[in-house]
Amino acid sequence: MILNLKRHSVLPGFGLTLGFTLLYLSLIVLIPLGATFLKTASLTWPKFWATVTSPRALASYRLSFGASAIAALINTFFGLIVAWVLVRYRFPGKRIADALVDLPFALPTAVAGISLTAVFAKNGWIGQWLEPLGIKAVFSPLGVVIALTFIGLPFVVRTVQPVLEELGTEFEEAAASLGATRWQTFTRVILPGIWPGLLTGFAMAFARAVGEYGSVVFISGNMPMRTEITPLLIITKLEQYDYAGATAIAVAMLVVSFALLLVINLLQWWTRKRFGGV
Amino acid sequence: MTGHVTHATPSVERSERSATAETPLVRWLLIGVALAFLGLFLVVPLAAVFVEAFSKGAAAYFAAIREPMAMAAIRLTLIAAFSAVVLNTVFGLVAAWAIAKFDFIGKSVLITLIDLPFSVSPVVSGLIYVLLFGMQGLFGPWLVEHDIKIIFATPGIILATTFVTFPFVARELIPLMESQGHEEEEAAISLGASGWQTFWRVTLPNVKWGLLYGLILCNARAMGEFGAVSVVSGHVRGQTNTIPLHVEILYNEYQFAAAFAVASLLALLTLVTLGVKTLIEWKARQEATSPV
Question: Of A97, A110, B55, B277, which residue is 20 to 30 A from B201 by alpha carbon distance?
Fold first, then answer.
């Protein structure tokens, strides 16, 4: 059947490779994910709803989404500056700075978690300076924001960097020759050009942060209603053998993740359209 | 999510054109802010791992790593990461061949589905296998009857690791092979090469850097995965603990220096990964610019 859906090609192996791809994808990803949705069907709707809207769950959403949004905003602002500096300027250590940006992709989250906790604890390298100011950076919502900022750091930089390179300086030269100040050129010419890339990076950093677990559990203190993120609530329910409750919240998270994935795909499509099929 | 090999970064040379350049003051201010941000969030935590690891001296450091439980965790991590990398590399090559070399309906949907595991929370990635193979799971009773252990055992850890690293190789290879087209393969076939020969002699050499790139990122994530593995492992010391889980246990027992010592192994792996990645990007860029 599928063979009729493809255009003719002299290359061999289409049926075999596509067949294997679909089989492996189904076994590892689609069937397990599907089974999770099926499992929720064993819950009645009122019970499902009561679980996902319990006060403790709602508090965890507030923290997870709120902290993720703040962290993604921090990363959008600083990520734009980092991307700009890496594309436009030359300075000593630039190569190393560029390579380091990917650190959060490669550093295991548990390592990041214990390290950030040590650094921001009240006797830590940075925490000792925050303590006298009355800022509690660990075992508080602020700690969650710090961990999520670390986790989402590369996304905005890596989405804006290629767009800035693509953009070139012609439009800026035109703007300058027409009498625009540098700031006007930035807000009226450069910003509209990189806007889709910025939004995509924000959405990716946000999506990654919402599901993050490893780096947060060490620094947050995990107090129910106060510093308990949604993924941790799932673990807690599992440890109490509340499989139905864990599944209900997991499904709620999956729905949000898929919605975010859809938004990100649309943003990427918009970015590509804007730059004429790059 | 991660950059592609082909994404070269030619630094735009900008010297005397003051019309589109900031004043030196603004320029150095921006560089300062950028470096301060990177320093605060990347360099400081990374350095802290090594400083804390050696806080009780080199002897304690090596003792923490040579300890039997740590060695068992290292062994399990190597097994899980190796299995996941092999599985996902074979899948990546096969999927990229099907997607990049042929045109068919539903291609973009398939690519989105391959990327799906990246948008699932690690905790949920572990949970889905517990719901399938755990005691309360769909196949739980059947597995118990036949005395097969998947959850709280090595197979579950391999499965969870494979899920979390599923897209790495495929998403690196698909765009790369698409950009290379299929003329070279068609030429090989028309000259009488078999499909297998074409793949080994033409396709594979063309994508070697992209493949290596996907491989090392896949491996780094596989060795460091925490959330998903934590759900399926059961935390049995010496049996189902991977390196990150061992770090967590040591940390929760207030053995901070030992926890950081074991964590420093993963941090070293990260540095090697980033180094190799930078090298591959440089190498791929060099080959792209040098005349063939």
Answer: B277
